[in-house]
Amino acid sequence: MQVIIIGAGRGARLMPTTADTPKCFAEVQGRRILDWTLAALAAHDLTQIGFIGGYQVDKVRAGYPQLTLRHNREWEQNNILASLFCAEDLMTDGFLCAYSDILFTPRVVERLLASTADISLVVDTDWSERYRERTEHPPDDAEKVTVANGLVTRIHRAIPPAEAHGEYIGVARFSAAGAARLREHYHRCRESHAGRPFREAKTFEKAYLIHLLQEMVEAGVPMAHVDTPGEYIEIDTQQDFEYARQNWKWPPGGSAPIAPGGRA
Predict the structure, then answer these.
(1) What does pTM read for this prediction?
(2) DSSP letters of the chain?
(3) For a Cys staple, 136 with which of 43, 155, 222, 239, CB 3.0–4.6 Å?
(4) For the segment 131-162, what is each residue's pLDDT rounded down to a tens digit?
């Protein structure tokens, strides 16, 4: 299956770590974030990897020649949604996508691949435990979801924490049919909102992926949730970076990956 990693942004909140390198080059336990991602994917023979770069893209090109690179040349003027569609040519037969600033174990990938839904979103059900220590990235920033009968009913930062089933971790899978639905809604919304506000974004170009996903949910497109009890860390701030360096426990070359908090 095709994988698309979204990694064009600079990661300003991770300065000075990202002063002259891409965010996914930040090292945790002696490996770059991107290396951890590639290892989790390779554990399931997912080696057809597309990478959307922007900031310091030449360093990704030089360091990872095996990746199919797509260059978001306007990364300073757009956001995650527009960035993802720089790799639209890789979506046709279905794909798995992931943010580039997250750590997740191979078991997260295993659960996602087991889903038979056309669109599946990975949701961390232990998210609130992690947010107890995230003072620089509060729960209001979390891409929270509500669910019912196995399907996502809402994906929005404004969901009250007490009502959230979990946090979307930025990893999803689209079958060929699911990818076609995603593309259809993207082009419909871009045509009607280009240069104009789109949901909570100031312009369509500045929209996040979750804005389009919520648009699709409201249009009746079913999306399954694939739950993971942790086994994931987002690295958005220096505080997150320090937490990951102290708590990420999946050993390279080990047996079963160990999740943060010691869960085997």
Answers:
(1) 0.93
(2) -EEEEEE-S--GGGTTTTSSS-GGG-EETTEEHHHHHHHHHHTTT---EEEEEBTBHHHHHHH-TTSEEEE-TTTTT--HHHHHGGGGGG-TT-EEEEESSEEE-HHHHHHHHH--SSEEEEEETTHHHHHTT-TTS-GGGS-EEEEETTEEEEEETTS-GGG-SEEEEEEEEE-HHHHHHHHHHHHHHHHHHTTS-BTTBSSGGG--HHHHHHHHHHTT---EEEEESS-EEE--SHHHHHHHHHH----TT-SS---TTS--
(3) 239
(4) 988 999 999 999 999 999 999 999 999 999 99
